Amino acid sequence: MTTNGTPLAAPLARTRHRLRAHPLAFDAGLALVVLVCMVTGSFTDPHGSPDGPTFGDRAPTAFGLVLMLLGAAALVFRRRRPITVLAATAGFSLIGLIGDERPAPVTMSAVVALFTVASRTDRPTTWRLGLATMTALTFAAMVFGPTPWYAQENLGVFAWTGMAAAAGDAVRSRRAFVDAIRERAERAERSREEEARRRVAEERLRIARDLHDVVAHHIALVNVQAGVAAHVMDKRPDQAKEALAHVRTASRSALDELRATVGLLRQSGDPEAPTEPVSGLAVLDDLLTTFRNAGLPVELARTDGGAALPAAVDLAAYRIIQEALTNVRKHAGPEARAEVSVVRVGRTVEVTVLDDGPLLAEPVPGGGHGLLGMRERVTALGGTLTAAPRYGGGFRVQAILPVTGRSTGEDAT
């Protein structure tokens, strides 16, 4: 007994699977069953007695037996040549109705063949061939059959052929419907897989941007402080010692942020997964302090009141300031000064970084990785980024980030 209360469900399923795996054997079995039914029917005389059809009142002729055998044999090839088989079985049926003195029920094979044509071809072909078959067999039965033209048996030929065409068309429609559902499910599965791959690619790009920002910022500070220490090591060892202390602090901060960023790739159950909050404007003062210690004077102006921002916007604003000040330290010269402003304007927050130093090197066409990373962050949030030289000297980087709409929705998810 199975769980669904149908003890024959499993055997029937196995039988269907085997029959589908061997269609020729199934068609041969079907042809044998049809042959038995036709031979049995040929022994029944529908007008044998007033009480109704009786079995054994007549016997089929040798000619009728040959036609029944040929009609059943043709059904073995019904899947490979459905229209040819229909023409052959219909021809045998017509020959039996016209040339046999006691017509055998060869029409049964034509009915099966018509069902096969309807289930394996299109609807226009089904109705054209079905109408032709119904007309020819019904006309032959009415004109050449042993019964009057209005007899019930003649109308039965019309009814059986019509039902075969309708049933075959219904099977074909259902099969097409199931195939469409299966194709839609497979297409939806492919879409889900493509969406998952796209999200993985976006996440990798985001982590790559974070790694670049972290490494570029701290390595630039380490490089500057190491240069200062090497320059004053002999004449001012105290200043060199202070510079080396800044190198140690910057390198430790780089390792901590690198560990936190790479830790995002760990599994949720990993005990070493980071628990500290992601960098944001809440620790902006600490970021500016590292630049001041590296010899870059930075002034800060904030009018946002320290209001909480969506996590994606908060991180993007912090990284933009970090990358812009790193570029100032690398390209604007030792005498440059920088100004940072964070302004909340309606549903946006404006982050601006200015410097007054000359450019020591020509920028790479299209921007380096730093500017490209900033632009990708801003574009992903639906904002705008402006990065260009200032009139009269210096450089200006301004990002306008929306704090509602797409950014908020991403944060909520």
Model description:
This protein is α+β, with helices and mostly antiparallel strands and 413 residues long. The chain has two domains: 9-190, no CATH class; 279-413, Histidine kinase-like ATPase, C-terminal domain (Heat Shock Protein 90, 2-Layer Sandwich), CATH 3.30.565. It contains twelve helices and seven strands. It has helices at 9-21, 23-42, 62-74, 82-99, 107-120, 123-144, 152-232, 237-262, 284-293, 311-331, 369-380, 406-412; strands at residues 44-49, 52-55, 298-302, 338-345, 348-355, 384-389, 395-402. The strands form two sheets. A five-stranded mixed sheet has the order 3-4-5-7-6, covered by helices on one side. The protein has a two-stranded antiparallel ribbon with strand order 1-2. Helix 5 (107-120) runs parallel beside helix 7 (152-232), helix 6 (123-144) packs antiparallel against helix 7 (152-232) and helix 7 runs antiparallel to helix 8 (237-262). The longest helix is centred in the middle third of the chain and has 81 residues, at 152-232. The two termini are 47 Å apart. Residues 267-276, 360-367 and 406-413 have low confidence and may be disordered.
The major sheet is characterized as: 5 strands, mixed
Rg, alpha carbons: 43 Å
How much is the average pLDDT?
A: 77
* N/C terminus separation: 47 Å
Strand order, largest beta sheet: 3-4-5-7-6
